């Protein structure tokens, strides 16, 4: 199979504009003749569904939640990037493009990233028009803050709930189209199979999660926008229901799965507190604007803190190691996520972690310096040039509350500690997945008519995503890319007519799903689905996590193969198929996670280099930084499914060519 990325010719700054000018169109009078299925209603899915319906297409949208408002996009906290240069600090489309390529450790496709940077400003205008309440400065202009991996302020935000506000904006656009009858909304439905007719994606099999009924739905194109696969690790910052099933089903139907080993470990999550924990909580990267990350310099101080004999506020300044500021002075606490995460792991591996959990892993995110600085600034602004320490603390805490109040409240409710008084405890955790279904420049997979958007595809973030770029990509794909590229594809379908769900391909696909469901329900095993999911997560975190090596990856591949066999022999799924059955839902999802986990280990094993979130311990420089091999591994690794045995999957390579950016060693020092 030869991968054709369909990247247009021309200068990088003109590719997208020229390409759009020559795409085929579907006339308004022909659009009502065409059906589009959108699976997933987060930012990418909701924006795509609303856009296509507004254009006049017939849209069917599916989500497994009880409402599109509950998509995991709502959990995003810190902000959304856009190259508007409102802060007059030198930002530009090219700089956002460059920062994204560099942040991804030169493993992203150049043309897609530049397009993302180009349309970023339009996203902000769109969302403001929808009423998204972005933060504003004193003069009423939209405010910006910094995020990791950049030296400009380009992140637009709405307190610590940007994802929620953006999703409500997209949801309002979607709801309008539902009200007009242009979108049929299927809540509490899960896609369990893609249907291909004559090689093209022509529909899906979905399960009504309330009644258990299997339904056939046809369309002229299918868009997958179902998010990432971080829950393969069991513990992650993802919603408990987030899964890879839709993406994995189309992979098994012929769509290539690209760069599965590229997983982002977010540096600022609340540490694991116990073995029975089911998910982790993210504390926004925006907090690194105001917090300083440190651990004690002395191992004995860390031991005393873990034993409860010493408080962090009792550690004098000279005995604190602000390790990011020490190692990366040019960026300090705002280095990219992969760099910050590995540095946190490193100091904890040295025995200087501060959390009294099973692994003694945790570091501090301290706001005391910011409270002092902002307290003084606020007092001066009020005309008080000689404020007392008490006034400084009061004003500084009030400033922090206005910026991050909901995040501080959330942290205090979870940990029962006041972050205004005591430093936050944080530690890296699985957060985002840069890998995903391989797509070309049109966001079309290797299956004609099957498009993939947002986190579900691989296209824009390389080996490490910069903070505040996920929301940007999801909305860019849905509002400003897919409406052009999908219409170009659908120009051939204006005479196709309605696609019957009685075709033998639909019957066969439905029977495949029935067979899998019946096997689980008749298995009579002895162990729960969660039992196997936790074991998979343990293998993945320890051997395909922040640090990877050949021995561990080889072991992971064979251990997951054994786990897969045991899972199918001994999993117990109670209940029946014709009812609400959450355990059946989980079993179907974990079956896909197990296969994906094996492919992730295989992808990590073949990539004999370190880049971004993929850190192979054998490939690091003298200072412990990533050591890329641009000569041999400057490619996208896209895997083709070859059946039940994942180890038989075939690797295809898309060469990455950089014409407009000079590849260099990543340096944040």
From TrEMBL:
Needed co-factor(s): FAD
UniProt keyword annotation of Zinc present: no
Subcellular location: Cell membrane
Xref: InterPro entries: FAD-dep_OxRdtase_2_FAD-bd (IPR003953), FAD/NAD-bd_sf (IPR036188), Fum_R/Succ_DH_flav-like_C_sf (IPR037099), Fum_Rdtase/Succ_DH_flav-like_C (IPR015939), SdhA/FrdA/AprA (IPR030664), Succ_DH/Fum_Rdt_flav_su (IPR011280), Succ_DH/fumarate_Rdtase_cat_sf (IPR027477)
SUPFAM superfamilies xrefs: FAD/NAD(P)-binding domain, Succinate dehydrogenase/fumarate reductase flavoprotein C-terminal domain, Succinate dehydrogenase/fumarate reductase flavoprotein, catalytic domain
Domain called Fumarate reductase/succinate dehydrogenase flavoprotein-like C-terminal: residue spans: 533-668
Reactions it catalyzes: a quinone + succinate = fumarate + a quinol
EC number: 1.3.5.1
Single GO MF annotation: electron transfer activity
Keyword terms, alphabetized: Cell membrane, Electron transport, FAD, Flavoprotein, Membrane, Oxidoreductase, Transport
Gene3D superfamilies: FAD/NAD(P)-binding domain (3.50.50.60), Fumarate reductase/succinate dehydrogenase flavoprotein-like, C-terminal domain (1.20.58.100), Succinate dehydrogenase/fumarate reductase flavoprotein, catalytic domain (3.90.700.10)
Active site, renumbered: 337 (proton acceptor)
Membrane-protein topology: Peripheral membrane protein
A Pfam family reported for this protein in Swiss-Prot or TrEMBL: Succ_DH_flav_C
A Gene Ontology cellular-component term: plasma membrane
EC primary class: oxidoreductase
GO biological process, one term: anaerobic respiration
Superkingdom, taxonomy of origin: Bacteria
Record domain FAD-dependent oxidoreductase 2 FAD-binding: where: 35-471
Record-stated family: Belongs to the FAD-dependent oxidoreductase 2 family. FRD/SDH subfamily.
Official protein name in the record: succinate dehydrogenase
